[in-house]
Amino acid sequence: MTNLEKYDHIFMDVFGIDHAALGEAFTFKDVPAWDSVAHLSLISQLEDEFDIMFEAEDILHYGSYENGKKLLAKYGVEI
Amino acid sequence: MFLNLDRHEQNKTAVKDDAGYSLTYGDLCAAIGEFEKLDLGRCVIFCLCRNCAGSLAGYLAFLNNGQVPLLLGAGMDKELRDRLDLVYTPAYYWLPEKMASEEGKAGLFSFCGYCLVRTEYEPYPLNDRLSMLLTTSGSTGSPKLVRHKYGNLEANAENVAKVFGWTADEKGICDLPMNYTMGLNVINSHLTAGAGVLLVSANLMDPAFWDFVRENEGTNFCGVPFSYEILRRIGFDKMDLPALRTLAEGGGKLTDRMFKWIASYAKSSGKRFCATFGTSETSARMAFLDPSLALEKIGSIGKAIPGGELFLVDETVTEDGMATGELAYRGPNVTMGYALSREDLLKGDEFCGEYHTGDMARRDAEGFYYVIGRKGRFLKLFGLRVSLDETERILKTRYPGAEFVCLGDDTRMNIFTTDESLAPQIVPFISAKTNLHNSAFRVFVTGEIPRNEYGKVRYSALEELVRNR
Fold first, then answer.
1. Least CB–CB distance from A43: residue in B207, B233, B238
2. ipTM above 0.90 for this complex
3. Coil, strand, or helix at residue B452?
4. Pair (B450, B331) in one structural domain
5. Architecture of domain A3-74 in CATH?
6. Contacts with A, B 409-428, CB within 8 Å
7. Are residues B368 and B384 in the same domain?
8. What is the rounded distance in angstroms from the CA atom of residue B227 to the CA atom of residue A79?
9. Fewest CB within a 10 Å sphere: which of B187, B202, B390, B424?
10. Among B207, B238, B432, beta carbon nearest to A61
């Protein structure tokens, strides 16, 4: 599996959605199901999958599906 | 007036929410007067709550004016809410205007984005002492409600305000849902002290939450264990929150490690950490740990709040002076009992001021209590009580052909089923139904549900399956 596939799978698993739902519009503000529980679950699954440890500031400002890809690059994970 | 709302400084802000509404004590009293003119009489009203000024004003008015509100989360699954509707046939709904219009209902009175809707049901007789209703397991839509009596909420608000030492200068942050007993107590205990309440609907992981708290100089925070897990991950201990003075915890047991983390942070940053313990049946809180002892008594819920008494039922005492038994409480905040049907709302006081919690606890030689386990069939997921029996009922209703048993701990519910083909559907279904995140559930397929000779489920055999996975 490529990193993008892994990344997408985590989102699909955490939010219980199909691949088609992912994209620009998938943001913390616009997705009602993206609450604190889903967010914490997302963060810990990404950390486990890519063997990284997010800084607090990045957890708070994760923001969206797209922005998350940029953040991962900061930790040396190319999506 | 309820919580002495009319005796506090009338120009002072009582409530501010993150949707932009702000109400003084005078505004609240005037609103309660407006509701009074509607002359609603004695009846049950379903309040579909959000943490906002309109939601709160309705609750205060109903409590004050003699209606009996049942507080439910506005996000509750519609089917589960309809089930409660059929059982308790409320005469009115108090709900967000937007929801009312989406459901095609016309409001007869509006306030701060909320409106009152008449249903087709007629009011029916209620016990004279009945003041309010809360669910015992909100997310599963169980019809089992807690019957509060007049004086319960007031007594707990005052005694909690006293033990925390709240003054009119506080600004309590209410991030827990107001339809959740501990969230409601944060509100009541601040209002009874003439203080301000910050109602927040943004979640703890939203930068907007922290901006709101900072701008409005929130002084007191109250969270469930899961809230503190979030706080630790978002680097709460590095945040600059000079106005924040008190951190309180309730609604479940923190791990000792987390307890120590918060207590140490509080000590080093000149704040107080107050561990507390409560249940819906006791109108929220019954125990409080003196913050100066937090690092000494790690994991303790402290002692009874003023006006109350904690004790252990069937206690056994060991040589070192430790006593163990079921935690029980006496006090003016003990509710009247449960209701399972609307006929039960005529019932009088069955608890008679004494409640046995179903939690097993230990008391040390100095009289401090520690919760160590649970007797009953329910879990606390994300601080919310979830009935295992109710969850099984929901699953059996949805999938009549299969067998289900639910077990677990406060981190996860384990669902056992005999039907392998259902396995992939169960978690998405139950997660959507209960509004609890899918990470809280795990499914195990087993050839048959192990039972003893009397047909009772052998839970220990199922727990073995979990351990061996």
1. B233
2. no
3. coil
4. no
5. Orthogonal Bundle (1.10)
6. 427-428
7. no
8. 31
9. B424
10. B207
